Here is the input.
Amino acid sequence: MHDIKWIRENPEAFDAAMSMRNADITAARLIDIDAERRRLMTEHQELLARRKTISGDIGKAKKNGENADDLMAEMGGLKDRIKAAEDGQAALNEQLDLLLMSFPNILDASVPKGADEDENVEMRRWGTPAEFAFSPAEHFDLGEKLGMMDFATAAKLSGSRFVILRGQLARLERALAQFMIDLHVNEHGYEETTTPMLVKDDAMFGTGQLPKFAEDSFKTTNDMWLIPTSEVTLTNQVAGDIIDVASLPLRYTALTQCFRSEAGSAGRDTRGMIRQHQFSKVEMVSIVDPDQSDAELERKTKCAEEVLERLGLPYRTILLCSGDTGFSAMKTYDIEVWLPGQGRYREISSCSNTGEFQARRMNARCRAQGDKKTRFVHTLNGSGLAVGRCLIAVMENYQQADGSIKVPEALLPYMGGLAEISATK
RNA sequence: GGAGAGAUGGCAGAGUGGUUGAAUGCACCGGUCUUGAAAACCGGCGUGCCUUUACGGGUACCCAGGGUUCGAAUCCCUGUCUCUCCGCCA
Here is the structure.
């Protein structure tokens, strides 16, 4: 959501920012609508002021038993004009809001220019991909051979892009999630949260899934949405609030299921559990003082990287270029984990600073003690991590020649000491 | 699912059609007093938008959206949420 006042004052900057995003809008168009909107608004207010005066006079006249017919007559004429001004104003407001809601966030100055993912910039790498004495398998081959990853039965229930995990593999997924939550809560200062997974329209507008991306999510028959990420619920907690700056930052983490229609990705990642309609993810959301969001993005990214380091999974961190940065974000780091079976790095986390973009939509503000002015908070979100993809990464990186999988040391406490997952177990 | 009650400022709580953005109390902020603090007293104390160089002025908001009326926190309708009782239920 953009600030029309700012656009009015910085039209060239807005146009430059939008062209960076390939967004088809100009400040001039918005300013025209805004000018007419404000003209009507002023007119409307003047009419209301007149109405207030007259009705007060009528009240007085009646009290004194005087005749108020001429005042009543003037009021009759006012009514229609007020209604007209009101309707015109409402229409323009709606038109302007919808436009302001429909265009992507302005990018941070540090975001590199680029057309697509090929122009993302690698920031750093951690770990060295292991050498295998055999040809490493992909996760679905490993899982099916173990008899613990069952796509066929899931398809019977729900169609494609679903999976059933069994036995120790199901437990491994649970262990991963627990491990992540514990790390973020005990060492990274996030508050553990469980949230609804069904939300109303407002929440989806607040974080930017609506109005543009309705087709990416699932909607229920009673007009609710299955959350595509708990960023939606965690972030929208502060919608409409005015928060004391002293209580910031707020850091929340949650383990939830995420639901995505994957409309438009037909044919991509059709095998295995890389891309599912439903997956579990540990999310990290921060609500921060507007001056702190740059630092918080670095911190959050590090929190996500820490998960991989503790698990001994090689990764690289990438700064997304202008063409690859998502709608709501002003800056995004993707973390990609090494998958030996695929022989390449795949996205496992995405950490974004949305600045005040979401806060403006949600009307979430903060104020310093004794200060009269409010400011919009900044909101950030990051996966920490996608549990399903992390399971894949563990399987592929810790696979052994016989198809068994070693359990990473960090997960041993969560696996009841089980050190290896194999078909005989 | 059935029956009922309710939603007012940070909190509590008045207000059932006329100058009410809204009494009162508490909390909070500033001041007087005090060696300091407390108490007492005085003053202040919501959010947004429009307008103005500024001081200021205007307007809207008493859950949300419609309606009645010259005029709505107050009357009517719809929705949302909360609470109580019954039924059902993990």
